[in-house]
Design brief:
This protein has 286 residues and is α/β, with parallel strands linked by helices. It is built from twelve helices and twelve strands. Strand 4, helix 4 and strand 5 form a beta-alpha-beta unit.
Length: 286
């Protein structure tokens, strides 16, 4: 079985590659990346690295030839129209390369009424795959737990959790746990064709999250949110990203980010790492 991973030099892509190397032989792994030089360390381990720009169909076709399972990790490009164009070309390439199965790595903020600025992309993906001739599996991830650890020193300094979520809740999962589940999906054909939502075992209200962050940092962090406008302005880097980011917390305020499932355990037979435990292992005090 040849597993082909796109976006393998990104944060999640590297976790997927590392997990794949634990489960299958290097010769059964292909990394399709825009910049092969960034994946040189994997090539040294016997993994095939192919140049593949989502926007160049011919390049993608060549990279995807011989693929049994394609794990498609979208780019972090915005607005949605950019990702949609990339995915459209990738579907065309996958069809022409006769890819046997596609695992699309998506996000929970894909509901029709979700205000998240990237939601249109995820809505497009499911419909586009349904209208293709590809066999596919849809994966929806909860919010990444990973960014909380490097963000925590700023919150300690401020003494407040800033997310404009109101009474909403958010479920979290680490990239490591996501990667473990997705690679298990890739190597278990009996699970192909489903729709899986990967979450932790609990959705946190913002006061609950503030308490977890306080425990981990040994500091007092209270839930004292910014306004939507203030948050978007504060975190507007790169330019225009603040509006995208804050729309995610508006979605959470509308109770659209609090899904909790047992899909991770169904796939792996294990439980996800508890958020507080994860942060304890990954938080570094200044």
């Amino acid at each position: 079985m040849i597993i082909n991973i796109t976006g393998a030099t990104g944060h999640l892509g590297m976790k997927l590659t590392e997990e794949a190397l634990k489960r299958v032989s290097p010769e059964n792994i292909v990394l399709s990346v825009r910049n092969p030089e960034k994946a040189a360390q994997y090539e040294e381990k016997g993994v095939a690295v192919k140049k593949a720009d989502y926007n160049i169909v011919e390049e993608m076709i060549e990279a995807l030839k011989g693929t049994d399972v394609l794990i498609y990790v979208p780019s972090i490009s915005f607005p949605s129209t950019v990702r949609i164009a990339e995915f459209e070309k990738s579907v065309q390439a996958a069809e022409k390369a006769n890819v046997k199965h596609v695992i699309f790595v998506g996000f929970v903020a894909d509901q029709e009424n979700n205000p998240f600025k990237m939601s249109p992309f995820f809505g497009y993906v499911s419909r586009r795959l349904a209208s293709s001739n590809l066999s596919y599996t849809l994966v929806r991830n909860a919010m990444y737990a990973d960014p909380l650890a490097p963000y925590l020193p700023e919150l300690v300094e401020r003494g407040r959790l800033l997310y404009p979520v109101g009474e909403g809740k958010i479920s979290f999962i680490s990239r490591e746990d996501i990667a473990r589940a997705i690679i298990q999906l890739a190597i278990k054909p009996e699970l192909h064709g489903g729709r899986y939502t990967l979450t932790g075992e609990k959705a946190y209200s913002m006061p609950e999250l503030a308490k977890v962050l306080s425990n981990v940092s040994h500091s007092t962090i209270k839930y004292n949110p910014m306004t939507v406008e203030e948050f978007a302005s504060t975190y507007d880097e790169p330019k225009g990203f603040g509006e995208v980011l804050v729309s995610l917390y508006v979605a959470a305020e509308r109770n659209l980010m609090d899904e909790v499932t047992d899909d991770y355990q169904l796939i792996t037979g294990e439980k996800t790492e508890d958020l507080e435990s994860y942060l304890m292992h990954n938080y570094k005090e200044k």
